[in-house]
Amino acid sequence: MPIKQTALLLLTVLIVSCISSHQKNSMTNRKPSTIQKCDPDKELSTSDKKKILKIRNELKFELSDLTEFFNNYQMEQLEEFSPSCLTFKNLRLVYMSLNHPSYLKDSKQGVCAIYKGHWTNLWGRKSIKEAKDVLVESVLPIEEIYRCGGHSWTMKDENWQQGDPIESWEAYFKSFERPELFATISRTGIRSRKELKITEKRPFFKDVKCEYIGQWTIAKNLLGLGTTPEEDQWIEEMDVECQQYLSENFNRKSRFGKWIDEDRDCQNTRSEVLARDSKSSVTGKCKIQSGEWVGAFTNQKFTNAGDIDIDHLVPLKKAYVSGAWRWPKWKRIKYANDLSKPKRGRFAHLLSVYDRENQSKSDRGPADYLPKRTRIHCKYVKSWIDVIQKWELALNPRDARKIEDVLKTCN
């Protein structure tokens, strides 16, 4: 088979996988082999209750190598802690904070406690600012995990490594590759949780309820836990209802937050991108004022930063309705501020573009928008695939057909 046809075939297969990527988060689309029997109403034996109590109160693990769990940014944050102060709660509070947390310092022992930060509350709209008011909890209640498959897990697994299947309670609590399994919750709300079932009616705001359902389904899917027919039917109905509601009531600020200053150098993400993309030195230390930019889609030159918008290749609303509505907010903020380098010959996720062109693009996908410069269409759609593959987003059929048509013209 010619090289061009082979490459096109591989890209087509990738497109098909992207179309169904978010189905992995749906309880009704999992492979039967991953589903374990779930009986949430089964009476627990005395030994079961003792094991759950041990899991809740006694099971603690020590971390010997932090580099296993954190990328460079998180490692820079954790360098402020003394080794004796690193706890699982502190590690997750650092990871899940929507900004850089503040620490209480001890001159002898180093930093031992997180004091302030900005955390979302899984069960409410009001965020949490004081670390003492935050609990880091499993998205799924321990009883739910135990009854729906966790009863077969061992307590410890000395050979487990990050990325391995989770088949022990030690692995579950140590797993940092899938932080979606845990969430920050207001301490005042924990008492109302108890044996919470996802189908129970809760006094949630609609958007909070939908996002909680999304995180519940992601967690169950990641762990391969069982579900009941009632749960499957209810979640399937809510999935459709939530997608429509959240799409109609989308608000960028409340869903993805503002630009952040991740490395605390006084430049937020917008300024970081402007400084990166400028062809000459820029003016303005914290807020970039001028430089020399070439619009990514129009090839026009600009010197005034006010003429430049920072475009998300896959727009925020597009990402939101394609699966990001199921994410915790801290993950959506990471998506909105993702400065990672693209593959060679591809567009970055964040781009400096002419503001009018960005407004023309809006939240449209490839089926409804492609840059006027046809020579960059191949680069554009391949970069689009890179983003949705990295973030496990869905690709709707219309966009998929358009991307496939464009790929047929590529060298």
Helix and strand layout, with pairings?
Layout: H1 3-19, H2 46-57, H3 72-78, H4 88-96, E1 102-106, E2 110-121, E3 124-130, E4 134-138, H5 142-147, H6 169-174, E5 182-186, H7 206-223, H8 229-248, H9 252-256, H10 269-277, E6 290-294, E7 301-304, E8 308-312, H11 316-321, H12 329-336, E9 350-354, H13 355-361, H14 377-390, H15 397-407
Antiparallel strand pairs: 1-2, 2-3, 4-5, 6-7, 8-9
In words, what does this structure look like?
It is a single chain. The protein is an alpha+beta fold. It folds into 2 domains: 3-20 and 254-407, no CATH class; 31-249, no CATH class. Helix content is 38%, strand content 13%. It has 15 helices and 9 strands. The protein has helices at residues 3-19, 46-57, 72-78, 88-96, 142-147, 169-174, 206-223, 229-248, 252-256, 269-277, 316-321, 329-336, 355-361, 377-390, 397-407; strands at 102-106, 110-121, 124-130, 134-138, 182-186, 290-294, 301-304, 308-312, 350-354. It has a 3-stranded antiparallel beta sheet with strand order 1-2-3, covered by helices on one side. The protein has a two-stranded antiparallel ribbon with strand order 4-5. A hairpin with a 6-residue loop joins strand 6 and strand 7 (301-304). It is globular. Mean pLDDT is 81; it is low at 20-35, 62-73 and 191-195.
